[in-house]
Amino acid sequence: MPSSAQQMHGYYAARAAEYDAVYRKPECQADLRAIEAWLPARFDEGRAVLEVACGTGYWTQFIAARASRMLALDAAPETLAIAKTQVPDDGRVEFVVGDAYALPKGHGIACHAAFAGFWFSHVPLSRRREFLAGLAEAVEPGARIVLIDNRFVAGSSTPLSERDAEGNTYQLRTLNDGSRHRVLKNFPSQAELEAAIEGLGASPVFTQWQYFWAFEYVAA
């Protein structure tokens, strides 16, 4: 069986053209408008930002308006191709194909902040520390790190289809072409998030809306 990372890559490559439909769910619109206004202010104006799993660039556009530079990384070239059409081509954003577990440090950009939207829920429990440690190494000390992801809301969220021996949960998702994909999707609590950054970050702040949560902290 393919690894969870391989499954995720294949799923998002196949989903690229329809990905942004998730941002049109009627029940989520009030939350999304609130987050779109809230997110840019999390980053100091004129600083460089690393974005992990930027996807189609939906969130990139809101952060780029405030950042001096952005390094936006994703594993799927298919989603990056869409991102390049959605984010203004003013030279501030560099899109790169990359691995969230082997983050680049630099590319000529000293990043003083980082953002990962709707990615942490796809990180296996056994790799959370690995990902967060790599993220801390990829940015400057004292960088502000912001994670945003889904809350599980019955009737809106795709039902959970299984739980593995490690405690990871999965959803079975169907795309427009009829293909079905087993997708790892965890829903961490505030306590789990705070425990995950122990020794890697400080000053955690947890914010939640009806359908989403945000977790921000300062890299050690």
Sequence-ordered SSE layout with sheet pairings:
Elements: H1 4-15, H2 29-38, E1 48-52, H3 60-64, E2 69-74, H4 77-86, E3 93-97, E4 113-117, H5 128-138, E5 144-150, E6 160-163, E7 169-174, E8 180-184, H6 190-196, E9 201-208, E10 212-219
CATH topology: Rossmann fold
Name of the level-1 CATH class = Alpha Beta
CATH superfamily: Vaccinia Virus protein VP39
Oligomer designation:
single chain
- Strand order of the biggest β-sheet: 3-2-1-4-5-10-9
* Helix percent band: 25-40%
Strand content: 25-35%
Structural class by sheet pairing and helices: alpha/beta
How many strands, what sense, and barrel or not for the largest sheet? 7 strands, mixed
Shape, per Cα inertia axes: globular
Number of helices: 6
Quantity of strands, as a count: 10
Gap between N and C termini: 37 Å
List the helices and strands in order. Answer: HHEHEHEEHEEEEHEE
Low-confidence stretches: none
Residue-averaged pLDDT: 94
**Gyration radius, in Å:** 16 Å
The second-level CATH architecture is: 3-Layer(aba) Sandwich
Give the count of structural domains: 1
Keywords:
220 residues; alpha/beta; Rossmann fold; seven-stranded mixed sheet
Can you offer a commentary on this structure?
With about 220 residues, this protein is α/β, with parallel strands linked by helices. The chain has a single domain (about 5-155, about 185-220), classed as 3-Layer(aba) Sandwich (Rossmann fold), CATH 3.40.50.150. About 25% of the residues lie in helices and about 25% in strands. It is built from 6 helices and 10 strands; from the N terminus they run ααβαβαββαββββαββ. It has helices spanning about 5-15, 30-40, 60-65, 75-85, 130-140, 190-195; strands at about 50, 70-75, 95, 115, 145-150, 160-165, 170-175, 180-185, 200-210, 210-220. A 7-stranded mixed beta sheet has the order 3-2-1-4-5-10-9, sandwiched between helices. A 3-stranded antiparallel beta sheet has the order 6-7-8. Strand 9 and strand 10 (about 210-220) form a beta hairpin. The longest helix is centred in the N-terminal third of the chain and has 12 residues, at about 5-15. It starts with a helix and ends with a strand. The model has no long low-confidence stretch (mean pLDDT about 95).
